[in-house]
């Protein structure tokens, strides 16, 4: 009985130690360093791209800024690490970056055996193909690519998706892969391959950078599901909760009509309980809602993210939507109430 009691006590102590380790993780590191280390692409218009002065813009970039605003109160407290598709998971696993926000597809193997955890779906996408319509005027559909050479980036889901689709359609093809996306695009423009394949959002972004954009046709078919979202390491639930609920806060903010322009006024004047909870408004007894504190943040976490970066709709519009050169329709990325898939649990 005594041995059993000792065993139980040791087990309880181990549980406490594990819980403590999970709490004293990335969130504390970010506070200590004073910035969020964010892994991004090497340059994909609309998602993460630097200008000549190394100022980064894009949906994935804005999401990291929203995290910084929520945790540190300042959306500028972010350092960006450009990563290839091959490098991105190792950088996260090793602790080189705090969060990976790099047009990365949520798959089962990545979410389990790689020791990673996806915190949401920032963009619902699907894989497509682009061809030069001047050189290949007869190609109007993916099924017209029988025997074609296709360029793509290595270390991504695109290779397997191409193999699955062409096998199911009984089509022959040749794959030409490159570690860097710019190399794949250059090979496509040089005529080394007949088509280039990646997520359809990426096709529209790359098309704008090509020598003669109008000569290039994005084919109509979508051959895969590509839910793109931010990723953190497994075993750090405190940080996972922060990243996940920053994403949910941005989606809830759009649904509630909270924007970067009105969030301060809404905090003062709104009587909507959902808005009051999200913005940490004090109740009649002077106590705040407590949701930020429950994550190890202050009660202004969501307000800071919304005010400094905007709600989900604002982020989408200026980076890939109608306020951007890409002018991509919301489609599946509209709110659930508008026929899309963007949906966040309530703050309660």
From TrEMBL:
Annotated ranges, domain Solute-binding protein family 3/N-terminal: 35-265
Top-level taxon: Bacteria
Record's keyword terms, sorted: Signal, Transport
InterPro entries xref list: Bact_solute-bind_prot3, Solute-binding_3/MltF_N
Keyword check for Lipid biosynthesis: no
Biological process per Gene Ontology, one example term: amino acid transport
Pfam family, one: SBP_bac_3
Family: Belongs to the bacterial solute-binding protein 3 family.
Identification of the protein by name: Amino acid ABC transporter substrate-binding protein
Lineage of source species: Bacteria, Pseudomonadati, Pseudomonadota, Alphaproteobacteria, Hyphomicrobiales
């Amino acid at each position: 009985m005594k041995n059993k009691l000792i065993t139980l006590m040791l087990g309880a102590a181990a549980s406490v130690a594990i819980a403590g380790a999970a709490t004293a993780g990335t969130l504390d590191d970010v506070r200590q360093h004073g910035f969020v280390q964010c892994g991004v692409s090497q340059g994909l218009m609309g998602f993460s791209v630097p200008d000549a002065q190394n100022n980064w813009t894009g949906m994935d970039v804005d999401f990291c800024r929203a995290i910084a605003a929520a945790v540190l109160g300042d959306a500028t407290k972010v350092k960006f690490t450009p990563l290839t598709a091959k490098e991105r998971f190792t950088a996260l696993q090793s602790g080189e970056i705090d969060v990976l926000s790099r047009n990365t597809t949520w798959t089962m193997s990545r979410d389990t055996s790689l020791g990673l955890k996806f915190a949401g779906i920032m963009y619902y996408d699907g894989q497509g193909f682009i061809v030069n319509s001047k050189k290949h005027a007869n190609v109007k559909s993916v099924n017209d690519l029988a025997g074609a050479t296709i360029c793509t980036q290595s270390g991504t889901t695109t290779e397997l998706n191409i193999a699955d689709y062409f096998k199911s359609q009984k089509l022959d093809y040749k794959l030409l892969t490159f570690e860097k996306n710019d190399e794949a695009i250059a090979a496509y423009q040089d005529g080394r391959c007949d088509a280039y394949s990646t997520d359809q959002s990426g096709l529209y972004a790359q098309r704008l950078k090509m020598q003669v954009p109008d000569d290039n046709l994005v084919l109509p078919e979508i051959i895969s599901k590509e839910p793109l979202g931010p990723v953190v390491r497994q075993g750090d639930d405190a940080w996972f909760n922060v990243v996940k609920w920053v994403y949910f806060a941005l989606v809830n903010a759009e649904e509630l009509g909270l924007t970067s322009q009105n969030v301060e006024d809404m905090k003062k004047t709104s009587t909507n309980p959902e808005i009051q909870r999200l913005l940490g408004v004090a109740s009649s007894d002077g106590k705040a809602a407590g949701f930020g504190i429950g994550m190890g943040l202050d009660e202004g976490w969501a307000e800071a993210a919304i005010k400094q970066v905007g709600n989900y709709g604002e982020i989408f519009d200026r980076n890939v939507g109608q306020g951007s050169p890409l002018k991509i329709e919301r489609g599946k990325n509209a709110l659930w109430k508008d026929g899309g898939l963007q949906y966040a649990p309530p703050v309660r």
